[in-house]
User: Fold these one by one.
Assistant:
Number 1:
Amino acid sequence: MKFLTFEIVLKDEALRRKECRNSPQNRAATINVTKNPMRIIAGLVDTYIILMNISYVTRVPYPLDRVLAQYFDLEHIETVHPTTLGQYRVLQVVGNSIIFEQIWPKWLGVQLRTTITQSWDPPNQIRFDFVKGFLRGVTVVTQLRACDEETIIKDVYHVPLVPKWRLLRPPLAALVKRGVDRVWKEDLAVELCHGGWPGIPGHEKQVETKSELIHTTSSEAQMRWVRVAEEEDLHSTKPVTIEVAGQGVMLWKDKDGIRAIDSRCPHTDGPLALGQVSDTHVTCPWHNAKFRLSDGRVCRGPATQDLVVFPVKLAGKAVLIQISRNE
C-alpha cells in the first residue's frame, strides 16, 4: 500500500511541475530537491498525505466502571481474541500510561508486531498511540459515557498516510467497523472480562474470592442438602448455572455422573460455564485458568485458589447439592 501511495503522489508531483513556469529559480529548486531524496519524501507527505479520521460508536450493556476495567485488562486478549488481536505483552507502566507490545495473529505465515502506548485521561478517556512497528502513526481516542446501566463508547481512529483518494475512504472505514464489531462480539460473548493485569492505573488489584456456600471446617451436622435441578435438565454438551443462596453453582453431567462446582473463577470472577468444559477439566474463558472437575484443583494459573466442589446426590430424578446450613 505504501508503494501504491507514493506512486500516485509522484505522478501528481510530476504534473504539478509541468504547470510551473520554466524560470531559473524554479529550475534551481527542482535540481536541489532532486539531489535530496529525503526532501522529496518529506515534501510529498506534507503536500499529498492526509490524516483520515474514522468514527465508531457502540453501546454495551455494562456500567462504565466495568467497561473501563475491561480496557485495562490486557491479560484476557490472548484467551478471548487470539484470532483478532493476538497477544499483548506489557513492557512498562508509567503513571496513567501502559506501554505494551501487540503480537498480531499470523497472516500468510507473517506475524507483525506493534508497540502501543495506552493512556488514561480520567475519568473516561483512553488514548492509544501506535508508536512502533505495524500501523505506526495510528492514534485511537476512546470516550466512554454512562447511560443508565449501560455505556456508550465512541472511538475516533486517526489514520495517517492515506492518499487524497475519496474512493478509498468508505471501504477502509467499513473494514475498521467490521474489525471492531468482531472484537466487541467476542468480549460480550464471555460477559466482558475485567480484573486481569495490569489493571486501571492507581486502582487496587482485584482479590481472589472463594465461595461461602461450603466451609472446609463444617461438620456433617452443619451441612444441608438443597434441591437445585432435575436430572433431565442436565446435558453432557452444555453446563447449567443455577443460583443457590445468592451464589452461582455450575452443574455438569458427564460419564461419571453429575458434578457441581463454583460457577465463577476465583481469579477475577470469570463465568466458567462459558469456558471450555470436558469430562475432566474446566477452563476459564477470561484468562485461561484451568481447574480439575473432580476436586477443583488449579491445574494452570493465573488463578491460585482451587474451586469449591459440592457433594451431589440424586433423590429420584431431583438433583441435590450439599451446602453449609447457615447459608
Number 2:
Amino acid sequence: MRPFSLHPIPAYQQRQSETEDWALRVTEIAQLAQQEDESALAMGDRLVALERRYGPSSLPLVASQAGISMSCIYGRHRVARLFPPEHPVRRLPLSFSHLLVLLGVDDPVVWAQRAVESQWSVRRLRDEVDQALGQQARATGERCRECREPLGEAWVALQRAGERRVRCCSPKCGISYLRERPAVREPFG
C-alpha cells in the first residue's frame, strides 16, 4: 500500500515505477534459476566425491539421510560424473535440465553447442535428440525394447531416473515395458 500523499503520483511515473519493479523481479528470478542450476551441479560434484571415497552404496544412504529422492541423487550424480567441472559443456550457458538431456547422446559437446547457438529450450533439445537417435536406431535396425519388433515411425523414447533411455515401437509397448519392470526403489517412504 502506498503512503498517503497530498500530491498524487503522475501516471507516467507510476508506470515507470511498475516497469522497474517488474524488471527487478524478473532479474531476481533469473538469478535464482541460475543458482539452482549451480547448486544441482555442486551437489552432483559432491556426490561423485562421496562415491569415490565411500563406494556406490553410499548414494542411497545419502538420499535416505538427507531426505532427497533417489531420482534426484542419480540425476545429479550422473551429470557430474559425465560432465566434471573441467568439461567444456559445463562452461556453456545451459541449464541443469539441458545437461540431463545430454546424458543420452554420444557427442554431448556437439549437441550442447547446437543448443546454445540455436537457443533451444530443454524440450526442443530433447525433441531434436530423440529425432536424431530415432533415425539412427531405425537405420541400424534397432528393435523395440518390449516386443522386439523393428522400430517404426511411431516409436517412443522412455527414461526412468537413474536408467538409460530406451525406445519402444509404440506407446502401448512403452507402457507395457514400464509396467513390467519395477522402478528403482527409494530407501524411504
Number 3:
Amino acid sequence: MRAQRLPRARSVGSVGFVTACEEADGVTFGGVERKRVRDAGLVEDAFDQSFVALGAGVGDGIHRMMMLHFVLLLALAAPPGRLVDVGGGRQMHIVCVGNGFPTVVFEAGGGEGWYTWAVVQDAISRNYRACAYDRAGFAFSDERPGPRTVAGIVDDLHTLLHNAGEKAPYVMVGHSMGGEFVRGYAAAYPAEVAGMVLVDSSHEDDGTSTLAPSIEAIREQRRLALEEMRRSGKWKTMGFPDGLPRDVETLVTPLTATRKWWEARFAEGRMSDYHPSVPVERRQLDIPLVVLTSTDASRPNSVPESDWKEWQQRHAREQDELAMRSPRSTHVLVSAGHYIQLEKPQLVIDAIRQVACSVIETSQR
C-alpha cells in the first residue's frame, strides 16, 4: 500500500485527515503560520553555525571574564528534568511531563538535546506523557566511555526509559539524525514502539550522497576547530536555530561552552555504525507512521549548487522510501526549513496526535 502523499503544509488542513480520537482532541492536522526561521542547514544539523566564537578579536582578559560569567551561570543551572542512574557511575537527564497513554519519546537531531522539542513537548504533554532527553555528553547528561555509536545511543535510551520508570509502548519522534536513532530503537525493541513520527529525518543511505565530499570538508573544519579548543581550553558557545524559547536558550547556552558538549558533537559525526544504522532486512514497520519532509531548506554555503539540486532530488526519493516502510503511513510535505518543530510546531503536534490516536484505537480493539 503506497503511503498517502499530502499537499504542502499550508493546505493539509483541508484534507480532512482526522480520526474520531483526533476530533475529540480538536485536532485538524493543519497548523497556524509561524514566522520563518533562519534555516540552519539540512545537512549537518546546524553544525555550520555551531562554531560561534566567544567574542572574536577581543583580548584574553575579556575572554576570561566571559568564561567566568558562563561558569557561574553553569553552576546555577538546574536541570529541568531528572538525573537518572544508567549504570557505570553515569547519570542521564530526562524531562518527562504530562500524563496519559501512550508515552511520547522525543529524539533530537545530531549534536543537540531535549531543548529542541520544548515547544512541541509542552503542547503534547496536555494529553499524553511526553519525554525528551539529553544524549550522553550533552547538556546535563554525563559522557559515555568508549567510541560513540548508534547502538550505544539506543542502549542508553532503553536503559534511561526503563530506569526512569517510563512505560512502553512508546510513540517515538525523531528529528534529522534522531530519525535514524528512533528507527534503530524500533529495530532493537520492536515490542516497545507502537508509533513513529519522523521530522525531516536523515536516511540510512545519506552516506553515499553526492554531498559526501562537502560534508567531509565540514567535518574536517570542525575537527580543526575542536583541536584548537582542546589546545587553548577555550570552549565556544553554540548557536541555536530561531524559534527556540528564550528562557530555554538562556538555560542551555552556558552548557554548550564545555569540553564534553563539543566532544560529543564531534563524535556524533563520526559514528562507525551510522550508515546504515538499520540493516535493510529490518527496516520495515507495521505501526502508524507520519513522515514530515521539509521542502524549503536552504543550500549550505559550502555546498555547490549543482550538488545541492541533485541532493534535493535524492532527499525527496529517500523521504518517499521512509514513508513506504509502513502500510499505515502518511507523508506530508512541509513548506518550511529543516527545523519544522520550531518553524511550524503545530504540524508536528498534529502528526504526533494523529499517531497517538491510532495507537489508542488499536489498543481498544
